[in-house]
Amino acid sequence: MVTLDINGAKKQLDIDPETPLLWALRDGLHLTGTKFGCGMAQCGACTVHVDGKPTRSCVTPVSAVAGQKITTIEGAKSKTAEAVRASWRKLDVVQCGYCQSGQIMAAVALLESNKKPTDADIDDAMTGNVCRCATYQRIRAAIHDAAQSL
Amino acid sequence: MKLANENLGRRGFLAGSAAAGLVIGFNLLPGGARAAAAPAAAKTFAPNAFLRVAPDGTVTVLSKHLEMGQGSYTGIATIVAEELDADWSKVRVEAAPADAKLYANKLLGVQGTGGSSSIANSWDELRAAGATARAMLVQAAAASWNVPAGEIETSNGTLRHAASNRTAPYAQFVSAAAALPVPAGVKPKDPKTYNLIGKSAPRLDSNAKTDGTAQFTLDVYLPGMVTAVVARAPKFGATVKSIDAAATKKVKGVLDVVQIPSGVAVVGKDFWAAKQGRDALNVTWDFAGAETRGTDAIVAEYKKLAEQPGTVAAKKGDAAQALGQAAKRVNATYVFPYLAHAPMEPLDVVVKLTPAGCEIWAGDQFQTVDQSNAARVAGLKPEQVTIHTLYAGGSFGRRANPGSDYIVEAVALAKAMKQKVPVKIVWTREDDVRGGLYRPLFVHKLEAGIDAQGNVTAWTNRLVGQSILSGTPFESFGVKDGIDSTSVEGSNDMPYAVPNLLVDVHNTKTGVPVLWWRSVGHTHTAFAVETFLDDVAKAAGKDPFELRRSLLSDPKQARLKRVLELVAEKAEWSKPLEAGRGRGIAVAESFHSYVAQVAEVTAKPDGSFKVDRVVVAVDCGVAVNPDVIKAQMEGGVGFGLGALLHGEITLKDGEVQQSNFHDYVPLRMNEMPKVEVHIVPSLEAPTGVGEPGVPPIGPAVANAIFAATGKRVRDLPLTPEKLKAAQA
Hints:
The complex is a heterodimer of chains A (150) and B (728). Chain A is of the alpha+beta class. Chain A has helices spanning 21-28, 79-90, 100-113, 119-126, 136-149; strands at 2-6, 9-13, 47-50, 53-56, 69-71. Chain A has 2 domains: 2-75, Beta-grasp domain (Ubiquitin-like (UB roll)), CATH 3.10.20; 79-149, [2Fe-2S]-binding domain (DNA polymerase, domain 1, Orthogonal Bundle). The longest helix of chain A is centred in the C-terminal third of the chain and has 14 residues, at 100-113. Chain A is globular. In chain B, the strands form 8 sheets. Chain B has a 7-stranded mixed beta sheet, with helices on both faces. A 5-stranded mixed beta sheet of chain B has the order 13-23-20-19-14, with helices on both faces. A 4-stranded mixed beta sheet of chain B has the order 1-2-3-4.
């Protein structure tokens, strides 16, 4: 048994402790907002927060995060998260949408540590998150917009 | 693909059942009969196959087209809502079921999404659907209020009779309208009265795609469902010789190991078990029928072929003679690599097979074809195959393929497992990158002749590469006299007025499966034509913009010329740039839309460069949703730029050398240029925007680098290493 603290609730899962957090969330708990894109921390579609830090859940074994606070897109309800979401909607950032949970989680983490990120800060924080639809221009604009509103 | 070609398009892809889908449900509904026979009809107004109005006034638009990011749901709903005068906040979209009789793509002849045709083929159909529904609601109100229908106005989901000062929401007349006969010949609105079209209504999928609730195929969990990953051949065409599954079967959670035509499926209780099981699997492959060449050998063969005449795809005047008489000749050879689509959501599908039928959940791009292929494998009739079309996490063409590879594989597995439980197949990124169905590798050889006055007198373009359509059930759709339109589009109909033209093609054969990839033939032809034209401009001592403008002299090219002029104006084409920076221009008509782009690049002596800014001008007819059009241009620029800078699938001894995003490199945030988009106002029928943003970006950037450095890289991708070598 592995006990995980996910979106403020304790969840018990009967899984191999080496199972990546991504698959525990998805197949174990049906928290499907967190996506599988590459399986090797190359695309960021699986980004969640572990104790507030953006973390690639596809390469993070559940054993490594037991006892830590895990937040997924479904549980991202902070003021920053809501501001980011509102800016994403205002600017219609999404296209296929598959990477956007990860993009939003990365953007929220950025804004929680840096209230007024520059373009260079955004490049640093977001370059690990791939969007094959190439919505990058709007992601950048939405991060600036959210920073303004916070 | 040029889908709207009238003869081609209306003929349809498939003989037999699919052809019946050409005439669309809206007009097929029995005249005067009530449209919806479902029990819910008493409460819901469903006058045709494309929309329903619920008793609470909620409007549900049924989209026959996949939403894979291109904004089709929003665009389709905009057309319906405009004609219906619906309240946008009450509009929803649902995926239509697979039913070619009701939902065939009028330009493809089957139900499917591709060729940037969603809005183009829906335009008349959905305006009629919306306008008819509105007329029935008006009729119902007129009867109730006892006033002439012509005196009733509608807006924002509300009916109003000014003279008697009565208003009512649509909800009030849903039941009454549902009881009326469906009128014929209702005229759509005058464009001058549009409230939604041209006004950028917000995307209908933004909310669900920002809170994690949007449902993709990967998110489907059915009771009892198992998950499989498949070990597929490491070389295309190899087959299973023997399987050692001893270690796999010891992996906790592995349920079964099943040989299927595409390889060996490891079935697990969940993805991780199946993946661990596959990692432990030992398959011995038979390479007897496999492609074992490397891409180096394939390119060498293609380059040899490029020296010999091919099948003529376009001929005007006498190009050989004109070249012989030319004062100056320019020539160049280009190599375009195989490219994988690599959508963010790797391929996946859920299949539930029972003796009575087959249910499929997928980001399905090719419903009629998938239905037919699934039925064949399952031993069912196509109408026994139900498809639940979900959001696709990108596709770029991959999820529409004639063999329905990712779907039939799962049906075969479900069948082999004796239909016990629903099965989900998940492709890993490695499976996706190595799975084939690539943009074909092409070699182009071009030559031009210039006379003493600097006029372009001759143009030849020889293409060497695999045909996408030959050998598929769609051959008759796009292959004529040995010419696959998807190979030569953009080359054989290149827009410039050159008196002597010869375009010919060699259709090659390799064991590497190929497929359309966002903008299809234009992915290579636009690059060859548009960069070569800049070489010609240089040789002729002309400005690239001015040369294009003078060669777009045919009145048929007026729209292309207009976007060329607009982009030059918006990008301040003639304004000088500082040393080390360059501006490049390119245009392309694709899928009946016209796009011109100017790229600004900063290049350094070490070969590195950065694309700083891209200005886009687009003419796609009526701009149904300008913001979605802008998004597609931005995305097309980014997608095409990623391919230009990094995109390359190579084979060594038949094995694909790339596997994931570290070596099949996508464009990332730090490489995305500033993109500004200008839309030409137009009353022409709308055309597509999903693909047309892609073709010009590669040549625009390459031309900008040429302007900055005087150097060319003609073997893509255009990497700093190659540029540095060219500069040495």
